[in-house]
């Protein structure tokens, strides 16, 4: 017995030292690592940065375009000329050269307000990128938290199975002692050993599930899957969620609904750009040019010039086969479709929220019920254990009490987990999940 106690203390001390060496991963740490490492979030951040860079007057066509121009033409020809006074002249390998260079500016001064609509559209696309980024963050953070608390519950289940192993080992020891002194049959001892082996098998399977869930969490955190860690062995459930408040938050913050509203605004700006085709387009242009030419034969053998040029052009679509009307009607249909999609998204959102809230309330009730059942099962097991020690109850009755207690603890742990998952789901849908 002394050796066994020493072994237990040794194993316990080893586990404590090992536990200290492992990383203690809190939910806050998991969220922070997710925001830093998760690939989906990083991709969404890059897309959002691109959308931010796209918001500019230049992309909208509001700024002038300035360019440098250079043309250099050379030729070598054999020429024969007959002039008006009857004289003739010929020249072999005559060289000719013309050089033009300068700077040119074109500026669309007016295009039917289309450039302003395009600029607003770029701003809306930036907002859309922000909504997509928030969606990516909410989705991945909620997945990480769900997996994190799954690890917590798996860890709690391991603790339950550890405790039942202790009880089963005590039962085997009692059965051995009673068999030795002749107060129990060998059958009772064998049944105790079989049940102990069964509990050890359950623990091995639970350990496998626990390790696999930790690997999944490491994958979501975008870090080495072999990274070992421990989680905080506690699940705190927010029991104060209120459905009307969640519905208000969802209409204001849900990224999917926000994205749909932004898409409608983009469609309205698209209609403005289409309508710009009914107005004239005015383009102003100016530039400063240098020109020089040389010719081996002709009245002028060389010339050069430089100076400003400027002007403007006006174009107006008079008739295009009624395409303008058709394009405007198509743009209006797109706006109507977006409005319908907004209403559909709201209805689906409130339906998901209501369903998730019903599940949340049910799980809160189960927490209370299963906690009460666990206490009853624990008291029943304690009484049964004392009776079993003095030999007043059969083995099967003790095993039943043991299994009832184990199952009660597991159900309580599962109820707390499901309530926490319901809480995470509600906060993710309403856009109020803290990260």
From TrEMBL:
Domain of life: Bacteria
Gene Ontology annotations for the cellular component aspect, listed alphabetically: cell outer membrane; efflux pump complex
Coiled-coil spans in chain: none
UniProt-annotated location(s): Cell outer membrane
Record's keyword annotation contains tRNA-binding: no
Molecular function per GO: efflux transmembrane transporter activity; porin activity
InterPro entries: OMP_efflux (IPR003423), TolC-like (IPR051906)
Keywords attached to this entry: Cell outer membrane, Membrane, Transmembrane, Transmembrane beta strand, Transport
PANTHER family in UniProt: OUTER MEMBRANE PROTEIN TOLC (PTHR30026:SF20)
Family the entry assigns: Belongs to the outer membrane factor (OMF) (TC 1.B.17) family.
Protein name: TolC family protein
Record organism: Sinomicrobium pectinilyticum
């Amino acid at each position: 017995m002394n050796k066994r106690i020493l072994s237990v203390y040794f194993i316990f001390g080893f586990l404590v030292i090992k536990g200290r060496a492992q990383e203690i991963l809190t939910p806050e740490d998991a969220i922070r690592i997710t925001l830093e490492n998760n690939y989906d979030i990083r991709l969404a951040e890059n897309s959002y940065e691109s959308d931010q860079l796209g918001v500019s007057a230049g992309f909208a066509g509001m700024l002038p375009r300035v360019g440098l121009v250079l043309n250099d033409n050379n030729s070598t020809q054999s020429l024969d000329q007959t002039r008006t006074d009857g004289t003739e002249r010929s020249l072999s390998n005559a060289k000719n050269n013309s050089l033009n260079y300068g700077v040119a500016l074109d500026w669309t001064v007016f295009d039917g307000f289309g450039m302003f609509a395009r600029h607003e559209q770029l701003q809306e696309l930036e907002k859309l990128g922000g909504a997509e980024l928030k969606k990516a963050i909410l989705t991945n953070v909620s997945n990480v938290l769900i997996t994190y608390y799954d690890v917590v519950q798996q860890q709690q289940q391991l603790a339950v199975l550890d405790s039942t192993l202790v009880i089963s080992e005590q039962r085997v020891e009692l059965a051995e002692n009673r068999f030795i002194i002749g107060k129990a049959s060998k059958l009772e001892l064998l049944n105790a050993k079989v049940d102990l082996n069964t509990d050890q098998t359950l623990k091995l399977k639970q350990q496998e599930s626990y390790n696999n869930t930790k690997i999944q969490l490491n994958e979501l955190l975008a870090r080495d899957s072999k990274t070992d860690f421990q989680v905080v062995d506690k699940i705190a459930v927010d029991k104060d969620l209120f459905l009307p408040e969640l519905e208000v938050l969802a209409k204001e913050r849900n990224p999917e609904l926000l994205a749909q509203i932004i898409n409608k605004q983009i469609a309205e700006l698209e209609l403005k750009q289409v309508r710009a085709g009914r107005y004239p387009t005015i383009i102003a242009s100016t530039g400063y040019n240098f020109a020089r030419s040389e010719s081996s034969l002709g009245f002028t053998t060389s010339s050069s010039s430089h100076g400003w040029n400027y002007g403007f052009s006006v174009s107006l679509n008079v008739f295009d086969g009624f395409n303008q009307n058709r394009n405007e009607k198509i743009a209006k249909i797109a706006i109507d479709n977006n409005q319908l999609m907004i209403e559909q998204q709201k209805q689906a959102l409130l339906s998901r929220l209501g369903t998730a809230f019903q599940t949340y309330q049910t799980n809160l009730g189960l927490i209370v019920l299963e906690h009460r059942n666990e206490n009853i099962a624990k008291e029943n097991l304690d009484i049964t254990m004392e009776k079993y020690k003095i030999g007043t109850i059969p083995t099967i009755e003790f095993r039943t009490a043991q299994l009832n207690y184990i199952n009660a603890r597991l159900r309580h742990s599962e109820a707390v987990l499901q309530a926490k998952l319901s809480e995470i789901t509600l906060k993710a849908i309403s856009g109020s999940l803290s990260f």
